[in-house]
Amino acid sequence: xxxxxxxxxxxxxxxxxxxxxxxxxxxxxxxxxxxxxxxxxxxxxxxxxxxxxxxxxxxxxxxxxxxxxxxxxxxxxxxxxxxxxxxxxxxxxxxxxxxxxxxxxxxxxxxxxxxxxxxxxxxxxxxxxxxxxxxxxxxxxxxxxxxxxxxxxxxxxxxxxxxxxxxxxxxxxxxxxxxxxxxxxxxxxxxxxxxxxxxxxxxxxxxxxxxxxxxxxxxxxxxxxxxxxxxxxxxxxxxxxxxxxxxxxxxxxxxxxxxxxxxxxxxxxxxxxxxxxxxxxxxxxxxxxxxxxxxxxxxxxxxxxxxxxxxxxxxxxxxxxxxxxxxxxxxxxxxxxxxxxxxxxxxxxxxxx
Length: 353
Ligand code: PMP
What we know:
Radius of gyration: 20 Å
Shape: globular
Cofactor: pyridoxal 5'-phosphate
Enzyme class: transferase
CATH topology of the largest domain: Aspartate Aminotransferase, domain 2
Strand order of the largest sheet: 2-8-7-6-5-3-4
Distance between the termini: 56 Å
Subunit structure: Homodimer.
Family: Belongs to the class-II pyridoxal-phosphate-dependent aminotransferase family.
Function: Aminotransferase that catalyzes the conversion of aromatic amino acids and 2-oxoglutarate into corresponding aromatic oxo acids and L-glutamate.
Structural class: alpha/beta
Number of strands: 12
CATH architecture of the largest domain: 3-Layer(aba) Sandwich
Helix content: 25-40%
Bound molecules: 4'-deoxy-4'-aminopyridoxal-5'-phosphate
Largest sheet: 7 strands, mixed
């Protein structure tokens, strides 16, 4: 007799992260190149000495530090084992099988995966001609089964953003009982100019159905330790804490995240160099003839259509690992000048074929 498993998961793809090999330049996962600051490494070592004990399930120190930084109460924060877990927990907290989760597409691959794992239905609304979230088409796609909406801002993998006014119009159009998750994993890299820069955190008072998702994996450089957080109305946070897997944020990760917040200025200052490189790389790629939408994240998107996979394969052969999306395009992480130059050299060679 064979074991009985859920047949609706039979065709679910297994998530395969970008492969790498020794000596290759890895520009596939939107990480930073630098390791932990000395103060963060020291906090990790200190926390490691106590790993015979379970971690603080309430993440009291981390939640307190975040609340202070963001000027909210601890009751408005839930930490998670990476923001990917919070995406999943939000779906668990809002959806029963058959309910709908709405998001733009192409976007972060966890949204459809986690939706299907929960037995809910992903509703994917194509991006607009500029590869950005099409909020009017999304508003039109809402049904009485819609329970959760993801807005990835900036969008992974295209790097595009939705502006404050467009988001406000959308929030006003959506029924207030639908939870709207604004995924700000890359917010630290946004440079729209002082009058245009914003975070959905500012809109939470007016729209208590907003959940803002953030992570320590990108600008803060803790991808390997897995820490993210959600900021939302205390009622939503209570629901998230109910579905939270006990002890899923380990004690080393908690201490490291607090140490990162203490070194906030130094870590965030490093995003400036990436932004400068992003502008340079995007301009050079466009000069070479590539279609590259305006990115506000630490990566750029090359709209390559059917060439995406062969392009990424040839790039890997040239020693630079990037992330292909079959039939669509490639996403290339922007890091330091020498690494970006290695990719640009390959891109120039490919363009001259
Ligand atoms: N949201 C987006 C848009 C992302 O790109 C990622 C990471 N690729 C995440 C969330 C998850 O980040 P983490 O689980 O590492 O916090």
